[in-house]
Batch of 3 targets.
Target 1
Amino acid sequence: MSDLSKRRLKTWIRLLGVTRAAENRLRDYLRREHATTLPRFDVMAALWRRRDGVTMSELSRMLLVSNGNATAVVDRLEKDGLVRREAEDGDRRRIRVRLTPEGLTAFESMAEGHEAAVDSIFGNLTETDLDMMRDILARAGRHE
């Protein structure tokens, strides 16, 4: 292995560590302040972005999870009155999921705190750091 290869590997490990630490802090925040989970927040965020609702298959693709995982989270959110399922164009085989008014209010409250938590997690980064990181990650994500 070359020195550059080893440095890339160490960078990957560092990236994973930062990601896991940030995710753990967000999970803890959501649990303590909103009595919810990160998967529930992620589903609600996806539905907030698509106010007209999405099919379960679309939701699974958006979140990069299995249909079964998405269904389990939606089942609990529906039980709590935060989302509702509706037949699309009267076709009971094609169901759209959307936030209820209560779900919209709950999500917006969570999202405000979530943003503050992320801001705190990365609070030691300057605007220049963030611009540089965005550019570096964009380059790293290209696989030509």
Target 2
Amino acid sequence: MIRTVDDGLSYLVKVTDASLLDDYLNSAVDLARQYAATTALCGILVTRHAHDTYTVAVSEAVPFGETRERLDF
């Protein structure tokens, strides 16, 4: 499942089947990248909250054109 959290700025990715994780994360990153490209000021931050839950967000803390990952558990 990919759910929009903040009007195109943030997406919640939650999976019940590990084989879908890469596809869901890639889709969420693509959606966030589309928004980030309109501003050319932000990058993408992927945060792992649990083995099955991630947030993909447009972030001013990440330079434009970059995607960074972090753990939050």
Target 3
Amino acid sequence: MLRYSVLLVICLLVAGCNTPGPAFRGAEPIRISVDQSTFDVRVDGDRAQAIRLNMEWAPRVAVVAPRAVAAIERVSGCAVSRLRGDQAVFVASLDCGAGSPPRQIFPLDLECDAYDLKDGYGTLECRPYP
């Protein structure tokens, strides 16, 4: 019985790893990678949340924060005016200029070609699909 209880607790903890905060519930996540970091970015009006999903050895805020800013700016199409958070979850205030935030850049249709395939590895080149 104890073993099943421990397993249930572990499953619940893992399931909550990329769950958005209450302010971002209902906002669809866009998954994006910047350098070695992968984020789920959610945009809601003039705010955005980036949750880092990948494992990194001893990540520092000074290293991860610029990646989070780049991810948020790519997804939202707006500049980040303020960033708060830690190595795992960042919340940003967005500066989209006059008016409401522009339409999100992502999701975006891509056309991809694979080259030099060998033993399951190769080069993948993608560009926006017109």
